[in-house]
Amino acid sequence: MAAVSMTTPGRGQRRRGLSDVRAKSRPRHDPERLTTHSRVVHDAVGQIEERIAQAGLVATDPFFWPRVRRAALLHDTGKIAEGCQQQLEEGGRPWGERHEVFSLAYVDLLAAAAGWSDADRLMIATLVASHHRALHAASSLGGKAALSRLYNAHTRWEEAFTLTPGPSGSLVQVPRGLHREFVAWLSGFLALDPPPPSPGEPTLAERARGLLTEVLTAWQQPVKPDQGLLAVLAQGALTLADHAGSAHQQLQTHMPLQPDYLSRLPYPPHAHQRQMGETTGHAVLIAPTGSGKTEGGLAWAAAQLPTMPGRPRLVWTLPYRASLNAIRRRFTDTLVPAPGEAKPDIGLLHGTVAQTILSEAVNDDTGCSHSTASPESVRAQAGKARARANAMRLFAQRVRVATPHQLLIGAVAGPAYSSVLLEQANALFVLDELHAYEPETFGRLCAAMRLWERLGSRFAVLSATLAPPMLSMIDESLEQLVTCCKAPAGTAPVRHRLVLDDLPITDPASTGRLRDWLADGHSVLAVVNTVATAQTLFAALADDARQTQPGDPHAALLLHSLFKHRDRDVIEHNLLRRHPERTTREDRRAGGLVVATQAVEVSLQLDFDRGAVENAPVEAVAQRAGRVNRRGLHPDGPVEFRVHAVKTHRPYEDGAVQAAWSALNTLVTEGADTLSEQDIDRLLDLAYDTEWGHNWAAAARAARDGFTSEFLTFTDPFHDRSEYAKKLSERFDTVEVLHHDDTDEYRTLVSGRHGDPLLASGLLIPLRYGQLATYNATYDRRLGVHLIDGDYDAAFGLRPPTDPETIL
User: Fold this and answer.
1) CA of 288: how far to CAs of 491, 497, 567, 689, in Å?
2) Which of 26-30, 129-133, 357-361, 366-370: highest mean pLDDT?
3) Neighbour-count burial of 119, counting CB atoms closer than 10 A to its CB (0-12 exposed, 13-18 middle, 19+ buried)
4) Cα angle 653, 655, 658; round to 5
5) Model pTM greater than 0.70?
6) Residue 485, SS3?
7) What own/partner pairs with CB < 8 Å and gap ≥ 24 does 89-97 have?
8) pLDDT at 617 over 60
9) Which of these, 119, 2, 23, 1, lies nearest to 70 by C-alpha position?
10) Counting Cβ atoms within 10 Å, is residue 773 exposed (0-12), middle (13-18) or buried (19+)?
């Protein structure tokens, strides 16, 4: 048994039995004990194993799960140190050491007693050492210090972990009696005989030092990609188990999507839905808007469930917040709740606050090394505990909707994101409206598909407008077969009379036409390309719409990205309630006006009598048309859909807008005046068979290959990569900001006694990074968010700050 320097605690030092040793500082009245936490985390690994099972690359390593379970038992053993125990007491002094480093002493001791192989010992030690901090720093850029910087040739190991000098005398970190009791408990858990004491055996400090040196050396140089990826997945399993255990959150076993989903539809399935339900493996579904793509995607996912190991989860991705909210409501209303529940539990992850709590949960740094133990620190820890509980629910659920950013950030790996990456193993991904992304994001998602395949996961792509280069790139990115299911011609009726208009949508003649439509009692959708244009057009037409629908507070609605999330949620609710899909050919005259940007394009089941839109990339034009006479049930038959020329290409690429306008004019020249499935296929062919289209494909491939080489090699799995995560976020070109006027309310919602960080997200407004200067943004480090100026109105959203009037 490891040597200790004293047989009894030092003068004035409290005697502790194993039942007194804490793992946490909370709950304050009865903190969780170390043995309890170790057992709970060990059990949580079993839940994770049941979910992931032997899927993908994990199936190639028969020692994967046994190593994670042993690491789970031993990961916090270093908290037995008296310095850590004193810090965990209310008002305790900081210890200043890393408990996970001291835990290596018990890994070394138990490995010898159990006769673990050198490979088992090294991997278990690696997981224990790295479950809070990176082993090595990737660069000198900020962030938390890696263990290789904290512990080195200058470390006084015996003072740190054996006998620590202090103002009240020397502190014995692990008294002999407590040590023996702890080793006996660990040995019993592992079904071992406790190792007998041996003269001249190394101290715990010496064991920790020696094993940390081995771990740091083993991972200092690059390793083979599969070896590195398996190591990151194992680390993800341990950190997920640790935080699930800390939050006392059980992983859900109920799957809201049932294997017989297709037979539950209230109508005979369409041919493309049946085909998706009969497909095993990766799939692509191309079907018109309003033809049941969502049901087709669910039918595909349901068909995969019985053919996969463990308990696969379903992750549904969409590009915009509005579409995420809508699809979550739809799943909540249509999928199957767990026994005894009224509604199925569907996870939702988007926004700065949600991402922040997720990052904090999977990168919790509650080692006994805080610089302060002030009341503010205690409150902060309480807030982190709430954040972990909220975030762990996202891991617990078996159906979740999210933006692709949350998936791609997991590929960055490192201690902060390995749990996110692990949850992408043995999963089903439905990438809805994949056409909506610029080539760089599309390429990165293709790289992610290749990774998911290695992890034993499957994906389906859903779109009404997937261009041939996109299909080719998806297929070439995968090793396995990708089945393409396409709705047969005539699936959707002819719904539109296409009219091209050389006048801008804001021209008096154009707005006059919109007024006439409103006066005739039609519901009118106007979709434009920029927020400023949307606000201008709405201001010009809102009163006309209200006059035609007196007493209706929602006769005129404006939807774009620059609203506070909670205001936008209200707008979306009113929009969906007032303009639902037409279900029969009755002459329904709801009237009213909606002015929107591209936020209205995807996954919102809306239906309007007339539509006028600004020209945009060809997919955007087709999607906008899908919100007008959505199912072709208007009593007038095909209705007018007018596309207006634009003076500027912003916010889109110039080549994309020009290619769309040229394709639309060619279509009309060829005699087409509709937007049938065949017409949309023709538009896509024309638009992408241009210099712009060829450049698009080249940019997407470059992004795919660059993302693979930069992020998905896993040859340095335990190096700090936090700066890469920041870089990836900036490449998405979005940031969520807080108006100065909302600072106090935001602070209360984030950290107040009854606050909840997810509630605080309702005050945030999404911006592009390039817009920060326009709104005089400053970064508040305490709140972790940019503060902005500007004029804000709940009906119009955010507008740039007005220049102060000059007084002469």
Assistant:
1) 8, 16, 31, 22
2) 129-133
3) exposed
4) 110
5) yes
6) strand
7) 89/22, 89/25, 90/25, 90/28, 90/378, 91/373, 92/373, 93/373, 94/368, 94/369, 94/370, 94/371, 94/372, 94/373, 95/368, 95/369, 96/369, 97/160, 97/161, 97/368, 97/369
8) yes
9) 119
10) exposed
Task: Please give the C-alpha separations between residue 497 and each of 45, 579, 581, 610, 638, in angstroms, as whole numbers.
Answer: 58, 21, 19, 10, 6
Burial 716-743 (b: 16+ CB within 10 A, else e): bbbbbbbbbbeebbebbebbbbbbeebe
CA 539/CA 541 separation, integer angstroms: 6
CB 794 within 8 A of CB 565: no
Residue 606 DSSP label: B
Residue (of 764, 740, 761, 760) closest to 750 by Cα position:
760
- Rounded to 10 degrees, what is the CA torsion of 760, 766, 769, 772? -80
Predicted pLDDT of residue 599:
81
DSSP structural state of residue 78: G
What one-letter code names the amino acid at 450? R
How many CB atoms lie under 10 A from the CB of residue 28?
10
Q: Is the CA virtual torsion 380, 382, 384, 386 positive or negative?
A: negative
Residues 192-205: tens digit of each pLDDT:
998 888 888 999 99
pLDDT-based confidence at residue 572 (cuts at 50, 70, 90): confident
Q: Give the integer Cα–Cα distance in Å for 528 and 598.
A: 7
Q: Give the number of other CB atoms < 10 A from CB of residue 709.
A: 10
